[in-house]
Design brief:
The protein is an alpha/beta fold and about 200 residues long. The chain is built from 8 helices and 6 strands.
């Protein structure tokens, strides 16, 4: 509604087809951090459940880690805050069972995957890339004590996103833990590409 009021364009979710993904697909996306479940029932009817949370990596960094490297107290407070926010959505989104496929779509998640050993971008768009929960947890313990300048030197981390990698890792770790996900697969596109493609199809 806010976007439509400002520029006169109505945004619709697009670009993901649950028919190609099995019974349930969990999608993580957006600067505000969105959780979307695309569900297919046995009757072949499609449904969607959403939760939009104030947990974008950039936002969490600005609000919780203003000095760069977080203190132990700042880190634990942020970690607790993130888990409290996400925990409230676990029940409604998991109602009816678990997920067949969990996908993350954002540049921060792509950087986290590269940090955790995923293939570099030059290997191609269609190479499968994942963030494994155990691997991420180990990297998080190291990242949270590193200066931003050092994080920026890590593979796959751009200088303009290095400052928010700790926050992104905190969010990813909480999601995988609370939703009991051993890994997240990285989607090479974000929802904005889906919106543009859907718009193009109707032109």
């Amino acid at each position: 509604d806010a976007v439509r009021g400002r520029i006169g364009v109505a945004l619709q979710e697009a670009g993901l087809d649950p028919r190609q993904t099995g019974r349930e697909l969990l999608v993580l996306h957006g600067e505000l951090f969105g959780l979307t479940v695309h569900k297919r029932s046995e009757s072949k009817e499609f449904g969607f459940k959403n939760a939009i949370l104030p947990l974008g990596a950039g936002r969490l960094t600005r609000d919780r880690f203003p000095d760069g490297v977080p203190s132990d107290a700042q880190y634990e407070e942020a970690r607790l805050f993130v888990r409290q926010q996400i925990a409230a959505s676990v029940g409604p989104l998991r109602r009816g069972g678990g997920f067949d496929h969990a996908v993350a779509t954002s540049k921060t998640f792509r950087s986290l995957a590269r940090l955790c050993g995923a293939a570099p971008s030059q290997d191609g768009t269609y190479v499968r890339r994942v963030v494994e929960r155990d691997v991420l947890a180990a990297h998080l313990e190291e990242l949270r004590t590193m200066p931003v300048s050092e994080i920026a030197q890590r593979p796959g981390v751009s200088a303009n996103r290095a400052h928010q990698m700790v926050a992104g890792a905190v969010i990813a770790d909480a999601v995988m833990d609370l939703f009991d996900l051993p890994a997240l697969e990285i989607c090479p596109w974000a929802l904005r590409e889906g919106v543009l493609l859907e718009r193009h199809d109707h032109m």
